[in-house]
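Below: protein 1.
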Amino acid sequence: MAQDIELRWQERWRRDGTYHTPNPSGPLANGQLGDGAAPEETGRPKIFIMDMFPYPSGSGLHVGHPLGYIGTDVFARFKRMTGYVVLHPMGYDAFGLPAEEHARQTGEHPRTNTERNIATMSRQLARLGLGHDDRRTVATTDVEYYRWTQWIFLQIFNSWYDAEADRARPIAELIERFEKGEAATVGAMSWAEMDDVARRIELDHHRLAYLGEAPVNWCPALGTVLANEEVTGDARSERGNHPVFRRPLRQWMMRITAYADRLLADLDRLDWTDSIKLMQRNWIGRSEGALIRFATDSGPDVEVFTTRPDTIYGTTAMLLAPEHPLADELVANEWPHGTNPRWTSGAATPRDALRAYRERASNMTDLQRQENRDKTGVWLGANCRVPTTGEPVPVFIADYVLTDYGTGAVMSVPGEDQRDWDFSVRFGLRVVRTVQPPADYSGEAYTGPGQAINSGFLDGMEMAEAKAAINDWLEANGHGKRTVTYKLRDWLFSRQRYWGEPFPIVYDETGLPLAVPDSELPVKLPELSDWAPRALDEASDPEPPLGRAAEWIEARYDLGDGERTYRRELNTMPQWAGSCWYYLRYLDPTNDDVLVDPDVERYWMTDAAGGVGGVDLYVGGVEHAVLHLLYARFWHKVLYDLGHVSGPEPFGRLYNQGYIQAAAYQDERGSYVEASEVAERDGGFWHGDAPVTRRYGKMGKSLRNAVTPDDIYSAYGADTLRLYEMFMGPLDQGRPWEPHSVIGSHRLLQRVWRNLVDENTGNLTVTDTHADAELERQVHRTIAAVTDAMSDLRFNSAIARITELNNELTVRSGPTPRPVADVLVRLLAPLAPHFAEELWSMLGHSDSVVYATFPQADPALVAADVIEVAVQVNGKVRSRIVVDADASPADLEAAALADGRIAQFADGAEIRRVVTVPGKLVNIVLA
């Protein structure tokens, strides 16, 4: 019965365009507002609700995937019923490594594989009854979509960052400044003295998208460069578990570092959790300190950034990253007489030692290099001098120093840094404390506060005073300056993959990049049969699969000097590209003339209250807390600077949903077995005849513990799954999947049905009478509690309150009053929309419950003679109950134990005691 009802209403929703949301203008100006007016003319507030869109997995959805999607759908339905114009779209992040690897495993072309996976996932999402505006669905692999991804790339390529104005500006304005002599060039030549090639090289130094050499994660087995997040802690690829090596490559980069301060400052304007903001701040890693120059005995100066210039007198060595370019200039040809063997790593010459150490370090990830307590290094046979004393100290290369942080050089101060202490112990270097530790301190490096010691004119100063004094000295004596640095590095934007957006870039005989004209977009991905990356050896250069598209490689364009033949860029963009801006395409998905119509963008992305604007509610997993969000913010700020969007941030409010966990089982080898094939017997768990060990983990393919929603649909219906997932716990917390508990949500719907419909005849049993005073008070208290819980995304609390009201109807004799039935159905509508539509229709309404008005509580009937009390189980809040304000401890205990959610937790467990705090909480302590 449930399936019949759900499929029937889903078909009607599709036929009627129930979830079509109108734009203020343009081709999507028609929609379902009920009065024919444009959305901005109705006087209704707007709200843009969005999920982090999914990868179209080949295995389809499991019941853990839709947790956030159901949550946003419930909230969108609630807001629609409370008078909002709601935009709630969905799309697919379909380019990139996951999709390509799945296609390689199945032997299919990535497009064929991806489109089938999208169709499967689309069917499963629709079967959940999600109220998405299907006219706005996008996939990053759609040619009409990635045309605009390429267009945005060209906006970035054709821009530079004006530090004085603190914003991006078109590169044409920089050319104008050069021509007028208002801007200095990077090199010694002036703009007027340069030929055309030199001018192009000069402009490429300033572009926000540029070609640069950087150390990358090279995976020969996959034939591509990997992002840091695609590499495991033991230097292997997340996909396929292949070895990954660090090596320098010339790649496309994005100058996200130009936006570091703005990316930091605007975090304060966002409605995000403090933990997510902290993760972004740490990733950007802004540090104030000093840039200090250390003179060398036979080469260029070494520049060091340090946040602790006050410890300079404690420098006993200079440490360079193995990749540091100065290492090649400073390294000696022979070991000086009497060199400590520990400093040479057994090599015959310093150059041999440098070569061998670099090869070793290239096989380690940055994480391995930083976290390795066994510090290693080799001396270059060279020294530098401490600026304040002139004392020579040895110059080493050491793997825990990273090129990507600071200058790639570290002044080793072992007295105040534990890693430097470990290095000094390993190589027998001196330790000089420059900060006085407490008298009872017995540790190694001391990093706490204290007065400067062994530091010349700084002695006796506290840290802040000492920092200011040494910075003044460095600047006065030409040895350094105050500066700010960042852990954030420019975004490496190239991938040697087939399944990605082609760059709209070509090259002429100079080897310098040129933009494909906007009128020639999109640059379409060629249809290759031989598209898979080839396994290579470590020393091989990447071979982008697009290099096999012989006819596609060359392109003819007129770029201003007549039609000529150019060579295309053979790398593709990373998966992040399409997901950086998809929220904008949702707004105006059929526009072929501009990225997004300005009126449409302003309507959906502007905060009428004067806030930062952007998507009003963005829901997704915490795993995207840094990179996706940081990259999307960067792209949006560039578009904002160039006038293409109206606000500085893409996502005003961010909410991270939790995860569904499920039992997983490992055999004696530690390998996971299919959870659905495990049986419990004889006090243990068995996979066939072999015992297995149970553990809990995030539901998914890797733990082989996924449960498909199709099984739940067929057994109980989609509304039961929706209700259960929203009742399992707070949306932002993890929760275990408990198959036996699904039936509880199904029974709630059955009990509601029986309170309104005769099971034998199928006729309504409601009566056209009013509720008595007591029931009416409970109805309005329920409305108030559910409204409050829905507004705060506490759907589990809302369901608990609805259950209490329905329980009251169950214990009463006689039919349910029609006004109460009407309220009950509307309260359930966001949570169980098919079920509510069926009952709403049976109650005599011809319109959809989707646009019915959410019930409003009468304040007089919700007066303060009732309160909401939190109920804890073993100290953790598991539910909330509404009770009389003067309820006794005994009444509180009884109400708590009668709560459906609490009953699930207490089922079969021994209750040791119940602690009640009248007016505040109930804590049930289980054995």
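Below: protein 2.
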Amino acid sequence: MTTNDIAAAHRYTAELAGEIEARWQQAWTERGSFQAPNPVGPLAGDLSGFGGHGRPAKLFIQDMFPYPSGAGLHVGHPLGFIASDVYARFHRMDGVNVLHTMGFDAFGLPAEQYAVQTGTHPRTTTEANVERYLGQIRRLGLAHDERRRVSTTDVEFYRWTQWIFLQIYGAWYDEEAGKARPIGDLIAEFDSGTRTPADGSVWADLDAASRTAVLDTYRLVYQSDSMVNWCPGLGTVLANEEVTADGRSDRGNFPVFRKRLRQWMMRITAYADRLVDDLELLDWPDKVKAMQENWIGRSRGARVSFAVAGGDAAVEVFTTRPDTLFGATYMVLAPEHTLVDEIVAHEWASGVDARWTGGAATPAAAVAAYRAGIAAKSDLERQENKDKTGVFTGAYAVNPVNGRQIPVFIADYVLLGYGTGAIMAVPAHDVRDHEFATAFGLPIVEVIGSEQGVADAAFTGDGPVVNSDFLDGKPVDEAKTAIIEWLEAHDAGTGVVQYKLRDWLFARQRYWGEPFPIVYDEAGQAHPIPEALLPVELPEVADFAPVSFDPDDADSVPSPPLAKASDWVHVELDLGDGLKSYTRDTNVMPQWAGSCWYQLRYIDPTNDETFCAPENEQYWMGRVPQVHGDNDPGGLDLYVGGVEHAVLHLLYSRFWHKVLYDLGHVSSVEPYRKLFNQGMIQAYAFTDARGVYVPAEEVVEREGGHFYQDQPVTREYGKMGKSLKNSVAPDDICRDYGADTLRVYEMSMGPLDQSRPWATKDVVGAQRFLQRVWRLVVDEETGTVRVTDDEPTEATRKALHRTIAGVREDYVALRDNTAVAKLIELTNHLTKGYPDGAPRAVVEPLLLMLAPVAPHIAEELWSVLGHSDTLARGPFPVADESLLVEDSVEIPIQVKGKVRSRVTVPADADEATVTAAALADDKIVPLLDGEPRKIIYVPGKMLNIVP
């Protein structure tokens, strides 16, 4: 046996790392090392030993709900998972009760589409994907409380999703109280006469059906004929985020059409102000707050009524610039606007501009043709299209401020979902209006004074009002106030606050989703399922494919897969008035439903009496003003995930949580107190001569270029993923280097909130660091312990405690890259300074500090050093403050603006001492010719000499 063979037997290799990691993962599971006790219920435990000494008693840490894709993980996915795990492990070691687990957002279209293609039930596919995903994240050594895992597809989970739906359905928003209240309170107020229906009806005179109709106009969940994204090729409606910019389905690339269908809606708009205002309470990135504010789009302006000439109709518009009313020279309605069919003229007036007609014989024909032509365009495509199109309806509206008749068009750049779906067009001062007016030969009237003129481009700056009668000469803000007063005085409009936010379309024509806890009677009236009959389980069906249509058949009507389960659809129930026949709702909830509240189920996952016991929610998510300040909204303590969920998921979750708060089911105002967005891991991708991506792992570099199957390819950087064929599986890195090496590499690549490039060749650097740590404890040749009981030098003690203070601070601030750098520096200090064995008094704290980022090797070496207990619960070392004070400092000396030397002086040295040392320095003396003209000293930082 050679010397190298002997050394290899005790060296920290990938094979040894794999064995250590598997063993410690099993040990953690058997010991319940990461189980967090609750105050009450099945998971209750002793809470007395947590917190103190300035530390919080508990921390609730959560990763954004992952979808268990069949493709599995690539190394970009665990970035946030590892970071949150480091954060959780550190605080757990520091005496905090930490709740950290992970579940799965397992409903959704991908599993259903795969099931349709293969004939495999989506549950079978989903459960297999979950197991694969679990295997991958468990191999990373993530310290999760396994008892708390949930999947949205678990019947016991979606039972409570349905229950929450019923709470929202059974509530209305009381604007006077500024909160949601049970619908029963509204009925009681109608019965007593303290409140009357908003539509002016007399409650006492209404029959049961009419009363139900009135209540439905108040409910936070209601049914409405809404414009939706209908995809005949998939047989379902799609959310906006599921439609590409060119108006096609993200999955399958089928055409998507705007269509009016009766759908479930959630009245999220009732919470618009609170959703905006409460952002101030949250410790979130400013970018995310801005994205939510823009999505909600709260703006102040005026609602103005334009009477349609020759009829009784009027077009309502909302404008943030009522001061420009005198410059409105035409109007535009969204093509889907309900008023279009009412006002469209029967024939063209003589002399109408040919550009306005679209070549059609009549206005009605022009409107029909235009609607058909833009039906497949997405909202994004319509807004971004630079080529303005539209047709004249043949109708004219009257501008209320000057009595002029202006033509009414339809055009795709106006959306039904924003404002009133109609605009007054002021082409002199709006870019899109100017483009449209130019294309159609419409008047452009300047009403905000500018020196540039408005013939060639819109002027969007500020200036005095011009060409506007009684507003002339006023600044914009003053003109806005004056015109609103005029509109209100003449019953032509009113000052209002408007929002871009629309109510939430809450239904999908799919199989693989949560069934609605709703049934319909013979008259088609909706009835909620009693709580005692929950859950409404998803039925087993032989054919779970939606009824698909010709992809181009815009006139097709959805037929949900659940409609095929006739035995399930038709049911006999006693809803309190005897056994009757009902029909179940055959839509399912959107995939967002489960992720709106899953943090609450993590708290109490085995509770079958309620979705989350109040005592447990209060403990983990309640307000803690003594720690977080008087404005603390409560919520979990750290939420880590990608910025791609900045709006919809976070907005929907906040909405649900606020309803639950209003109804008294939770004590926290917000679900997520602190949010952190990790960056992306990018990797090289390669395209061949056709521009087609080729597998990155099969590309070789030679002769100054890159080749795939001996053909040259072009290299680019891109987000790691399946589409660019540049994924790297974490399983492969764990196999070749070890999970701890992967963890250290990903955490050391750079600041967590920034994107960073992946380079497999650099992973070995992290492995070598861990090998140096290993050699501090284990002799590679003999396997014996190398640490000594010698006292460390004063310099080493100071280096240790500087590292402890710095690493502790870095872990708290999620600066794991700089924490790793400090650990590497300390390891190098010990390696070089103690070739015959480093002191135990320094090595053991090093292992404790390493444990959050590289837990397996830290546990193993901790055990090798004779400790029988896991270090999963610490203790994390605490710095000796007296050793953080420097005895001396090194001061850079500048001459003529450049650093020429450095001098070491006592830390408390005054300016005269530093100056004397600098002027006597061997490198400085030759640079001076006599006494310097000027000396500038920055205490403790720098001394600058001007010769």
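DSSP finds 29 helices and 32 strands in the chain.
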